[in-house]
Amino acid sequence: MPRTHESHALTDLILEIFRLNGHLLTAGDQLMEPLGLTSARWQVLGAIDLADRSLSVAQIGRRMGLARQSVQRTVNDLERLGFITLEANPDHARARLVVLTEKARSALKEVDGVQAAWSGALAEGLSAERLTEAAGLLHDLTERLTASGGRARSASKPISMTPKGN
Amino acid sequence: MPRTHESHALTDLILEIFRLNGHLLTAGDQLMEPLGLTSARWQVLGAIDLADRSLSVAQIGRRMGLARQSVQRTVNDLERLGFITLEANPDHARARLVVLTEKARSALKEVDGVQAAWSGALAEGLSAERLTEAAGLLHDLTERLTASGGRARSASKPISMTPKGN
DNA sequence: GTCATAATGACAGTCGACTGTCAATTAAAC
DNA sequence: GTTTAATTGACAGTCGACTGTCATTATGAC
Predict the structure, then answer these.
(1) Comparing A39-53, A114-128, B2-16, B87-101, which segment has the lowest mean pLDDT?
(2) Which CATH number belongs to the domain containing residue B93 in this structure?
(3) Which of A3, A90, A104, A155 is in Cβ range 3.0-4.6 Å of A83 for a Cys bridge?
(4) Cα distance from B67 to chain A (closest Cα, Å)?
(5) CA–CA separation, B152 vs A27, rounded Å?
(6) Which residues of A touch B20 (CB under 8 A)?
């Protein structure tokens, strides 16, 4: 199988994705470090906030495309840090509900402002059209991968950005 | 700070990057699972192969943009699995050289063929121009992030693709 | 040549993802 | 109403990245 032009271009693109992904993760962590949050922790809080009600660990996992075991670990950390409490679930004796504390709500508000400023600065001077076109291409690639392939290790590795927007 | 159009478009793009990154990692791992390799292991072998000589653990780390401790861990695994041997380094009493075994060389050859077929199939029907344009945009974003920001968690998370090409 | 500094491997520990397994619980089938 | 299947939390273990620290070894300055 000879390498086509497209194949080469795709390989380059993939390398850029890996590189940028790493930098974005780092940037996200730095953005909320002062608040005592990490990307993973923030994602969990965001999922609950977005749902507008309390959720069980397994529900959060499904919404985020993660294994429930991964979420469990993060939830344990968040409870220890006072961002959430675990309350009785009338619908399920074992599956307690993860509830945001006031500390979590104010942290989320804080992050939202910081993230808006950050993404605005990073996007400055770039045309919305180019950004959208690139996003569309990546979306296509994801579809091709998931269509032919099997389940992914993680449905998404979304981190820092947009707890609500999406 | 009001959210601009660009800011929104960027946020969408970022989410696509996280998603696709996860899928690509999975695909890469699946691609070389039959050979007993993982993305991280393959990367280390690829770095040595590309250098065309034996390298110390720290040298590999620098070339891959990883902490030498991460490489050390992988190298230990690779030695246990018979993909590499650690040989005396005339230039440094402690820093032994990581040397590829025949097993590693044949595995690398195998992966190269499989990866070519895989990326060819994934790229089919996509224009090289679109791919290149997107790669350029991501490259710009990486530059903006690294210019203003500090060091990244990992200079690159390259995995599966192109041990040699690059 | 000696001495301070940098590089190196090794070790311990953190973080975030995963898989697999188990017992308890809920829900569904019959 | 029982029995079976699916869901759930908890626990143990793997993998890949990170940081920090230590003693050893090279290297450079003087």
Answers:
(1) B2-16
(2) 1.10.10.10
(3) A104
(4) 14
(5) 8
(6) 17, 138, 141-142, 145
Where residue A152 falls among pLDDT bands split at 50, 70, 90? very low
Say how far A166 CA is from C13 C1', in Å.
Answer: 35
Distance measured from the CA of protein residue B9 to the C1' of nucleotide D27, in angstroms: 51
Which residues of A are less than 8 Å from B132 in CB distance? Answer: 9, 12-13
Give the residue among B60, B12, B112 at the shortest CA–CA distance from A142: B12
Mark yes or no for CB contact A9/B131 under 8 Å.
yes
Q: How far is A39 from chain B (nearest CA, A)?
A: 12
The nucleotide lying nearest B37 (C-alpha to C1') is D15
CA distance B164 to B142: 22
In tens, the pLDDT along B125-161 reads 899 999 999 999 998 888 888 765 444 444 433 333 3
Q: What are phi and psi of A31, to 5 degrees?
A: -60, -35
B34-76 confidence digits (pLDDT tens): 888 998 899 899 999 988 899 999 999 988 888 999 999 999 9
Angle between helical axes of A68-80 and A57-64 (0-180°, round to 10): 120
Number of domains in chain B: 1
A123: amino acid identity, one letter: A
Residues in chain B: 166
Domain residue limits at B101: 5-148
pLDDT tens column, A87-114: 998 888 788 999 999 999 999 999 888 8
What are A165's two structure tokens? 């927007």
| Residue A89, domain member (yes or no) | yes
Question: Is residue B164 in a domain?
Answer: no
Phi, psi of B3 (to 5 degrees): -75, 125
| Chain A residue at shortest CA distance from B31 | A149
Within residues 76-135 of protein chain B, the ones with CB less than 7 A from nucleic strand C are 92, 94-96
Is residue A156 domain-resident? no
